[in-house]
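note to self: dont lose this again. the chain is below, predicted strucutre after it. 131 aa total, dont forget to put it in the shared folder this time
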Amino acid sequence: MKRICVGHHVVDWVAKRTNEFGNFGASQGIGLEEFRDGWKIIAGVAYAEFNGVNVVCHIAAEGRRWATREYLGTIFDYPFTQLKVQRITVCVGEGNAASRRFVEHLGFTLEARLNKAHPSGDLLIYKLGKP
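---
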């Protein structure tokens, strides 16, 4: 059984898994919990740096069975419908091939490459525009 959850505890969960320093600033989180001896987060998205037209998205997950249609719909509904952004930005370290494949599969396109700006090499900047 799975359920969607919302709150800053999701932001903290994502930050611990994306090698951030535990803080995205003012942010919102949408998570997916699964019941395993109690409710536990298995995926989360933290939204940060909202400026009216763009929001930066940080994604983390455990396992492979979390990307349900309902959850994906929810995590894209929030920025495009509720925040009314024109685009979402995702930054991925060059060495994180699984994350690169995942965001490209979701429809994000590579917009820029920051030379040696990530511990794994270049920092890749992806964008997804409003449908």
